[in-house]
Amino acid sequence: MEWAYLVLTLVSVLNFATPLLLAATGELVVEKSGVLNLGVEGMMIVGAMTAYFVGAHIDLEVCTVPHFSGVGCLVGTSSLPFERFAMVVLTAGLAGVALSLLFALLVLGFRSNQVATGLGLTLLGLTLTNALGAGSGDLKVGRVETVLGTTVNEWGIWGPLLNMNPMVWLTIGLCFAVGWALTHTRLGLIIRAIGENHDSAHTLGLPVVWIRLGAISFGGLCAGMAGAYLSMIQIGAPLWKEGITAGAGWLALALILFATWRAERVVFGALIFGFTLALELRLQTLPGLPSWFVPWLLPSLPYLIPIVVLTLISLDARAIRRNAPASLGKLFEPGS
Amino acid sequence: MKRVLSLFTAAALSLGFATGASAELKVGFIYVGPVEDLGWTFRHDEGRKAIEKHFGNKVSTTFIENVPEGPAAVDAITDLAETGHDLIFTTSFGFMNPTNTVAANYPKVKFEHATGFTRNTDNIATFSARFYEGRVIQGLIASKMTKTNKIGYIASFPIPEVIRGINAFTLEARKHNPNIEVDIRWVFSWFDPAKEAEAATALIDAGADIIVQHTDSPAPVQVAESRGVYAFGQASDMSRFGPNAHLVSIVDNWDSYYIDRVQAALDGTWSGGATADTWWGLSKDGKGNGIGMVEMASYNEKVLGSALYAEAKALETALFKGDRHAFPCAGLKKQDGSIPEECASGAPHLVDFPTLVTKDWYIEGITQSIPK
Predict the structure, then answer these.
(1) Are B8 and B92 members of one domain?
(2) How far is B215 from chain A (nearest CA, A)?
(3) Where are the beta strands (DSSP E) in chain B?
(4) In what order do the strands lie in the sheet with B59-64?
(5) DSSP B283
(6) Does A131 touch chain B (CB under 8 A)?
């Protein structure tokens, strides 16, 4: 095993972990405020589609090679500069926010059941993108500029790692920052207080609904941006197809349980999930594998490991209670 | 959504509401992927459009896309049979058993199944392309273009069609360069861009400098382009996804077979059953007559250089005319070192029926084993 190969494997791990981590970071804040939003998958896929469409639109003017049909550019032939890419990611985030506000309106405004509403949000996102995004996989979106560009080879084995999209490092930083803010700032304290006991927080005069609205929007922003990573960065070229999230939103939700609501463990868990996803195609060629290993076990690893770990975690109920927001998913009815 | 719409269309047609009501023949298609997969399904849909163009108002067509392989496909095929379609093309290997099931229930409907080998009733025919002829050309090119002697091969499912391709490619590549090692990774999907991209990445990370794919999305070519290695396009012309990486694409061309079969159905000469299996390669009859189902598209002359380009074209011509076969018996051995039965009994090369249709063994020189 060479060092260069390990670095390249790490690149794959981070590549898989980043969208999960970003979506999970947002959802962590939502859940810490006492709201369970199961709509992560839906917000993610809407973000993914938005990023692709916006990317195609704003990229047209820098297009250099005409598409064979005469409209727009060849896929991935022109580069999408960072500032434009940032705009694309932000727009995707705002699409996520829009969807999350719908969720907020229903659960905070009309006090609907959070589980049902969240599931509804996922279905809405999936069907919406199926309807709007069908047949758009061949739009002409420029490849996102890389950090090192053509100088990547000058960095030796570290080149591919340093060349990763900055979203990777920003996401890890954001998750730690969120963890720190939740435990060390006044706002973090307020969010956690509301998540622990919304009635007491309300009695103390804390704006329960407004804080939760903010948390839900933050969750939507992160999920939308995570979607942008999926459609713009993950495979190295822009790509859209229906159902592109393929359960990433659910993995993000599992990640929070896995981490028992602790930010640093969310980062750790995302790396483990990313590792299992990256292993599937890398372990196939190990000599002497039994015949069922490649077709059956490897593809299920990313789902099997969380199940096993979650089972182990739930054996110790106290560990969960220690960090789980006590009001998670409960209905807040002030004055009742 | 589209599926629902196309079902409505099918229903409307059967009730005679739409203009297609005057059509003499209704042809239905079952697709495994989305029409815009830019690969396999895209080319079948081009074939459907070729039917519409060729027959005009005489024939109407419908399709259902994204149909999962396996038992679930029975519903979709039944939908088409139930809505008055006379001829139904099911265009993926995994539709083999479902197609036979539905064919038994609708004896008056004609069925055509792509790449399969089971024909239980007289109203079902199968067809396939000798894609492996294209793999031979890829093998030659890869053997001359690789510097690391490691070729990455992205495989979909361990079925005969895919294994034939791997064998044909490896046989030719190692003939020119015995040091070549073919590294095969299975993604267990026909169309999963993210997984195909990860497979390409894993292969390049492991040292491959040429990527071969037997999956349908352009993602591997895109990855090859961004990693600075070479790749071959699959099913449709993928040169535009990697102007520097792309070497040549194997393109499926179902147009003339589809038109032939629709014509036969109109004339009343269509037949199915035990012997109704049609295979076309680069040429229709394998001897250089007629356009077949396999095309080589967009040779990247600039990257190949004129000498290799000429060599590849010459090989293509030899395969087209039948002067060359993909699996000549001389020196051919199975992975375990044994000699294939028909070669042992003196045949000049492996034959399509029955060997290549069902074969599930690797040739000598591949070190990995086939997942079961």
Answers:
(1) yes
(2) 15
(3) 25-30, 59-64, 87-90, 110-114, 124-129, 150-155, 181-186, 210-213, 230-235, 246-252, 277-280, 294-297
(4) B59-64, B25-30, B87-90, B110-114, B124-129, B277-280
(5) B
(6) yes
Q: Are residues B68 and B195 in the same domain?
A: no
CA-nearest residue to B222 within chain A is A237
Instruction: Identify the sign of the CA torsion B262, B268, B274, B278.
Output: negative
Q: Is the full-model pTM beyond 0.80? A: yes
Q: Do B272 and B350 belong together in one domain?
A: no
Question: Two tokens at A225?
Answer: 């941006």
> What length does chain B have?
372
Confirm or reject contact between A244 and chain B (CB < 8 A): yes
Which residues in chain B are closer than 8 Å to A295, comparing Cβ atoms? 158, 186, 188, 371-372
Cα–Cα distances (Å) from B358 to A290, B2, B118, B129, B371, in that order, read 23, 35, 11, 14, 16
Domains in chain A: ranges and CATH: 3-149+161-323 (1.10.3470)
**B214 within domain boundaries:** yes
Residue B158 shares a structural domain with residue B212:
yes
What single letter denotes the amino acid at residue A151?
T
| Size of chain A in residues | 336
Q: Which of A27-41, A285-299, B51-65 has the lowest mean pLDDT?
A: A285-299
Residue with structure tokens 């993995």? A251
Q: What are phi and psi of B75, to 5 degrees?
A: -60, -45
Give B12: exposed, middle or buried? Use CB within 10 Å, 0-12, 13-18, 19+. middle
State the average pLDDT over residues A95-110: 95
Whole-number pLDDT of residue A35: 95
DSSP letter at B92?
Answer: S
In A, minimum Cα distance to B183 occurs at A285
Chain B interface, Cβ < 8 Å to A: 1-2, 34-38, 158, 183, 185-188, 193-195, 197-199, 201-202, 205-206, 218-219, 222-223, 225-227, 240-241, 243, 368-369, 371-372
Cα nearest neighbour of B36 on chain A:
A135
A199 vs A7, A109, A166, A194, B231, CA distance in Å? 50, 17, 41, 8, 62
Q: Tens digits of per-residue pLDDT, A29-75?
A: 999 999 999 999 999 999 999 998 888 776 554 555 444 444 444 44
Query: What does each C-alpha distance from A273 to A166, A173, A232, A255, B202 come to in angstroms?
Result: 20, 18, 20, 8, 17
Domain assignment present for residue B368? The answer is no
Q: Sorting pLDDT into bands at 50, 70 and 90, what band is B61?
A: very high
B312: domain CATH number is: 3.40.50.2300
Tokens linked to A269 = 């868990």
Contact B201 A12 (CB under 8 A): yes
- Structure token digits, residue B296: 């080589």
* Domain match, B124 and B138 both: no
Residue B332 belongs to domain spanning: 131-244+294-358
The minimal CB distance from A76 to the residues B35, B187, B241 is found for B241
What residue in A sits closest to B5 (Cα-Cα)?
Answer: A131
- The tally of domains found in chain B comes to 2
- Bigger pLDDT: B140 or A306? B140
- Most A CBs within 10 Å: which of B36, B157, B162, B217, as the mutation test of the A interface? B36
Query: Closest residue of A to B35, CA-based?
Result: A135
Checking if the pLDDT of B18 tops 90, the result is no
B176 with B307, same domain?
yes
Give yes or no: residues B79 and B176 share one domain.
Answer: no
Residues B225 and B310 in one domain: yes
Q: Can you tell me the mean pLDDT for A189-201?
A: 93
**Does B34 sit within 8 Å of A137, measured CB to CB?**
yes
B364 belongs to a structural domain: no
**Residue A294 has what DSSP assignment?**
I
**E strands in B70-190:** 87-90, 110-114, 124-129, 150-155, 181-186
